Known about the structure:
- By secondary structure, this protein is α+β, with helices and mostly antiparallel strands.
- Among the domains are: 2-104, Alpha-Beta Plaits (2-Layer Sandwich); 319-436, no CATH class.
- The chain has helices at residues 23-31, 81-99, 115-146, 158-167, 179-182, 188-191, 193-196, 205-214, 223-227, 234-239, 248-266, 273-295, 304-315, 320-346, 357-366, 372-390, 398-429; strands at 2-14, 36-39, 42-45, 49-60, 65-77, 109-114.
- The radius of gyration is 33 Å and the shape is elongated.
Amino acid sequence: MDSELRIEYLIVVEEKGAICNSPDTFNNLIKSNDDLDINNDIIVYQETIKAAYKITTNEIAGKRQRYFHLTLTFQYEESELDKNIEDYTKLLRAVKSVVSLIAAKQESIEAIWDDISLYYSQKAYPLIHEIENLMRKLITNFMITKIGTNWTKESLPQAVKEDLNKNDKRSSAKAAEGYINALYGVDFIKLKNMLFDPYPQNSNIEQLRDKIAQADKIESLNLNDLKAFVPRSNWDRYFDGAIVSYPAEKLTKQWDRLYQLRCQVAHNRTVAKKDFDEIFNLVDKLRGVLKQATENLYQIHIPEEEQEVVAESLASNINELYGSFIINWKKLENSLRDRVRHLATLVDEDARRFMTFRQMLDFLANKQIITKEQYQTGRELNRVRNELVHSQAVTYTEDEIRFFTHLLVEYLHSVLREINKHEQLLSTNGRESEDFEDKDEIDGEDAGSGENS
């Protein structure tokens, strides 16, 4: 059974001095191309390629312009379409080359229906869908098998998940999808950020300055310590040269180009054969790289001390709100670590033991530098951070994440003000104030899993 491909153009021409003002004059213009002929509502290209031909025209009111509505319909058999569609494209190209001579502007030739573009879009979509899912598969496997999160809750039976939701402190109506499902909400172009955005292993610039300031000669500096401050992507750290040989710059450039072509498909823009061919070639190259990386994931080892930083980098790319919270959390953590260690030296305590946020928070509370309310707020923010970074069952709405981010910024300022007061007090007295004595640890529910607890 024959099927149809329909192409419709609207062509706008200026009436003044126009050589075409009727269907007959338009037909004569088409036939001025020696490769084209029109007979009995059939247009023929090079005596072999045929299409049904229809032309109508009318004036555009108040514009001194005229439009021509051209419809071309190709009859084809399904088995022959792949072979014939390039011939149909040649006919269209010849028609457009002639029509462009009378169009008011180049953009005055508008394709208002294009089944050939639709054909190539439909062929391209499964390829783009495949490569998106291969990237998500790689990221998900990397998350679960290498970062050691509890995202494997996704595999729990439905009855168990329902029971967990029932016991959750927050309303199940607020429950959002977990990270694995959330990954399918990450935009195509942002997926690559999870593997290719550079970040430092140590983002505490004050610590870097201190290392350099304290060194009396170059040999005093540890090269690996310094490299921890240099931003590198997960791909550069763990993939390229280790389990696959494909530079990040090359892969990201191809991914960005594929995104541009994907937008043509997704937004119903014209997709020509050359566009489809480029999509096919890009997907073919990327498919091999992503499959090889996924198959060789077992060779990757992420040291335990790096896992928290990697987890934060991945979580911050789930969406912009998560990213904003994580960035501000790092500011809080780095600022407190510097100030707490400095305070510890003033009261003759070992500054090296204040590694985690919970340890720093306990120190500030036990020394009565922060109030019980500030202590509890810190624990709550710590719990939010751990859920965003580690938990698959993230239950926060966007408004809640915005609220916690704002609270985080305010909290940093308030705690630093309290630390400044006590540092001034110690400097003034030259000794530890009586109000600076240890007290029993402030009670509070456990902050949650993760290194920062």
